[in-house]
């Protein structure tokens, strides 16, 4: 395991985007946890929403005076192929779970666990990948509550994968899910905590005119002199870039000069990403108005989301989909699938539109509706900004997570 390098952060900087009462609440919770050591464990430091959240949460906890560490598992390609299969299986579609796959999972998690020698008062395990470390954690820290933070869509999990994961989740002390529909039977208290975006990161903060112009130029040959619809997501089958291509072609029947940007990256723990990127790029190669953009820097993603006329998130399954809130925060309306955490973020008919995940034609029609109505896009954008400010910014999530720790440790607050 290794600890990622992190930049210093200041909670006071968030006074410009959130209410003073929320910051006061964070300081009160931090006082209750002043002598506590917290550990977060996950499987990648880059390329996924969990890593993005931890890059903000961990240094902010430190700034608040809470001793907080983050460790990332070390694994080989075989291990990450198994854990990606687990991810897919827990979301309802994965290969059969073999004894060999179980053995690979156990060997890598146990090897990582042997490297662990710290002492903490509260441990958060993110998603299924590190769950196999629970024996070692219980042995070295028998009094530390272990919380499983599940970011996966568990509405329709494969029985065999759920049974395997349940061998470990049956021993946790608390579980945190992103929405109530994901809760599974666990003999421990559960809490619902919505994920959030960090409004002060390079991807989400306001940009000066010079940066905007520079990053816009670097998106060439994409032109913002004609309408642009964008999807930002990992290259992953659940994100349905092929369905987004179909929706774009439908919208072009009404908006002939429409362009599509499919921007995304490959998470460090996802061996399928590169192959899917190549398939998507191959599907789009004959259309000069489709731009497949891989591993853009955060500032360029920021500009792309701001300058796009509409953002699409046509996922088939979605743990939460924070790229929706990213776009809404930038006043860009979103057409998204009615799955996972997306309907929690989009107010249908007010900040964007919700469509059936299989309805690419319907998604295309909604995109065209927005492109043909400038006033509606502007109104949706203003509503979107305030909706995200209240519900999906980092200080709110941090309050929720610290309350879980305070409750688990039975601290006064």
Automatic annotation (TrEMBL):
Keywords linked to the UniProt accession: Carbohydrate metabolism, Glucose metabolism, Glycosyltransferase, Transferase
BP GO terms, sorted: glucose metabolic process
Domain (Trehalose synthase N-terminal) ranges: 40-182
InterPro entries xref list: Glyco_trans_1, Trehalose_Metab_GTase, TreT_GT1
Ranges where the Glycosyl transferase family domain occurs: 225-386
TM segment ranges: none
GO molecular function terms noted in the UniProt entry: glycosyltransferase activity
Family: Belongs to the glycosyltransferase group 1 family. Glycosyltransferase 4 subfamily.
Subunit structure and binding partners: Homodimer.
Identification of the protein by name: Glycosyltransferase
Organism: Natrarchaeobius chitinivorans
């Amino acid at each position: 395991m290794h600890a990622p390098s992190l930049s210093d952060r200041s909670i006071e900087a968030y006074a410009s985007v959130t209410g003073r009462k929320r910051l006061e609440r964070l300081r009160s919770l931090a006082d209750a946890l002043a002598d506590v050591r917290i550990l977060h464990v996950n499987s990648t430091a880059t390329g996924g929403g969990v890593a993005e959240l931890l890059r903000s949460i961990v240094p902010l906890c430190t700034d608040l005076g809470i001793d907080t560490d983050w460790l990332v598992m070390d694994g080989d390609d075989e291990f990450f192929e198994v854990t990606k299969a687990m991810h897919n299986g827990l979301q309802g579609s994965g290969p059969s779970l073999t004894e060999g796959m179980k053995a690979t999972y156990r060997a890598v998690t146990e090897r990582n666990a042997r490297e662990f020698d710290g002492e903490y008062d509260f441990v958060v395990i993110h998603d299924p990948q590190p769950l196999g470390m629970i024996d070692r954690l219980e042995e070295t820290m028998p009094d530390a509550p272990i919380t499983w933070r599940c970011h996966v869509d568990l509405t329709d999990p494969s029985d065999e994968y759920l049974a395997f994961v349940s061998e470990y989740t049956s021993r946790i002390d608390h579980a945190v899910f992103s929405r109530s529909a994901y809760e599974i039977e666990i003999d421990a208290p559960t809490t619902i905590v919505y994920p959030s975006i960090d409004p002060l990161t390079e991807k989400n903060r306001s940009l000066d005119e010079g940066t905007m112009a520079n990053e816009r130029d670097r998106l060439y040959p994409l032109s913002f002199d004609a309408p642009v619809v964008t999807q930002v997501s990992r290259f992953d089958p659940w994100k349905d870039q092929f369905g987004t291509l179909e929706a774009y072609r439908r919208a072009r029947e009404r908006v002939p000069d429409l362009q599509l940007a499919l921007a995304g990256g490959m998470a460090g723990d996802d061996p399928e990403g590169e192959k899917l990127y190549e398939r998507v790029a191959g599907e789009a190669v004959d259309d000069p108005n489709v731009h497949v953009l891989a591993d853009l820097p955060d500032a360029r993603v920021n500009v792309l989301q701001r300058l796009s006329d509409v953002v699409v998130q046509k996922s088939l399954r979605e743990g939460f989909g924070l790229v929706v809130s990213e776009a809404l925060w930038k006043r860009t309306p979103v057409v998204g699938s009615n799955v996972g955490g997306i309907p929690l973020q989009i107010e249908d008919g007010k900040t964007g539109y919700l469509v059936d995940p299989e309805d690419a034609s319907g998604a295309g029609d909604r995109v065209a509706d927005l492109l043909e109505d400038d006033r509606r896009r502007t109104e949706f954008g203003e509503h979107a900004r305030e909706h995200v400010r209240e519900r999906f910014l980092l200080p709110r999530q941090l309050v929720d997570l610290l309350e879980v720790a305070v409750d688990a440790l039975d601290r006064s607050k």
